[in-house]
Write a sequence for this structure.
């Protein structure tokens, strides 16, 4: 019996080819010298700046701070912005990591809903009802994981106005922004640049280059009080000095979008696009299934009777039943057969 695993989200295990010499730059002689810089070396930060310039966005080196991962970036930002018991707003549905990261910093998470009416959008009425005197930051995941929905320009304008009026910072998680499906001029691909509110944009090698094992991410600070926030972030980073020298030395050679991942997603998505909720980017797709059984029952039945492994929507805090989440990184033959079995049942 072979289980058809449609949940694989680790690009290094998804049978996607990498260049054989990809990691050679890690062996450079410069990697033997340890000269820690809490911001990240100028050489590495320039590579990040070049990444944004290639996308039409200019960013100063003294607004870029390297971290070991996006998760560490969140930890730094929660330390920076919040005291014990303060609150951050995070989207729902979304990746189920925020509560753990926030709890480690003694910060409270409150979830604001994304609604679906043929496309995903922020429920502003619900969002505003959650804001109180202890709200310190609002997280946007752009595009969202797992819905694959991008923030739209009109939504960003409303969010910035809302946050500026209440002195709330925006944290923008943009790790999937290079994996968009088609073009839409309404989309916001990055919040890096001139902003009306203090904004922290995050990304890293894990998704851009499909290299989660190399552990390098970054924060770009924008908006009012950016200099003060950056200096305080540097102090926090100096306490940990977590980013390794070899990956910083190699960063200019590594920081390229993984075309193999883009090709894999482009191959798998058409197989389920008409049977899935509208998806604009990222590595996942969401299928709505009949509410004749719970998501857990759907997932267990598919596994026990049809040898297909999927994730139920409640893993990502979907507010209602019944949704299944599939990874578009899955090896194509496996994805084709697994989705065929699901659609045959439906």
């Amino acid at each position: 019996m072979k289980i058809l695993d449609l949940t694989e989200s680790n690009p290094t295990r998804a049978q996607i080819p990498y260049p054989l010499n990809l990691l050679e730059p890690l062996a450079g002689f410069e990697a033997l010298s340890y000269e820690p810089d809490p911001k990240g070396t100028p050489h590495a930060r320039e590579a990040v700046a070049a990444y944004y310039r290639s996308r039409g966005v200019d960013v100063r080196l003294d607004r870029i701070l390297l971290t070991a991962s996006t998760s560490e970036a969140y930890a730094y930002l929660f330390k920076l912005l919040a005291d014990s018991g303060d609150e951050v707003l995070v989207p729902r549905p979304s990746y189920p990591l925020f509560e753990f990261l926030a709890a480690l910093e003694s910060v409270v998470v409150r979830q604001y809903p994304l609604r679906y009416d043929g496309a995903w959008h922020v429920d502003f009425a619900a969002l505003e009802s959650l804001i109180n005197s202890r709200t310190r930051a609002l997280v946007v995941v752009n595009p969202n994981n797992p819905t694959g929905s991008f923030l739209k320009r009109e939504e960003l304008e409303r969010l910035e106005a809302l946050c500026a009026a209440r002195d709330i910072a925006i944290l923008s998680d943009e790790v999937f922004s290079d994996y968009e499906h088609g073009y839409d001029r309404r989309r916001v691909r990055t919040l890096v640049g001139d902003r009306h509110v203090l904004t922290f944009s995050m990304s890293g090698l894990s998704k851009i280059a499909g290299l989660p094992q190399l552990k390098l991410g970054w924060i770009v600070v924008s908006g009012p009080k950016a200099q003060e926030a950056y200096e305080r972030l540097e102090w926090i980073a100096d306490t940990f000095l977590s980013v390794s020298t070899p990956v910083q030395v190699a960063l200019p050679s590594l920081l390229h979008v993984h075309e193999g991942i883009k090709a894999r997603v482009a191959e798998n998505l058409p197989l389920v696009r008409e049977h899935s909720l509208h998806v604009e980017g990222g590595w996942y797709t969401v299928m709505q299934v009949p509410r004749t059984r719970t998501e857990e029952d759907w997932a267990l039945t598919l596994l026990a009777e049809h040898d297909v492994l999927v994730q139920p929507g409640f893993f990502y805090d979907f507010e209602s039943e019944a949704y299944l989440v599939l990874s578009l990184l899955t090896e194509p033959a496996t994805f084709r057969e697994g989705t065929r079995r699901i659609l045959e049942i439906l």
Notes: The two ends are 23 Å apart (CA to CA).
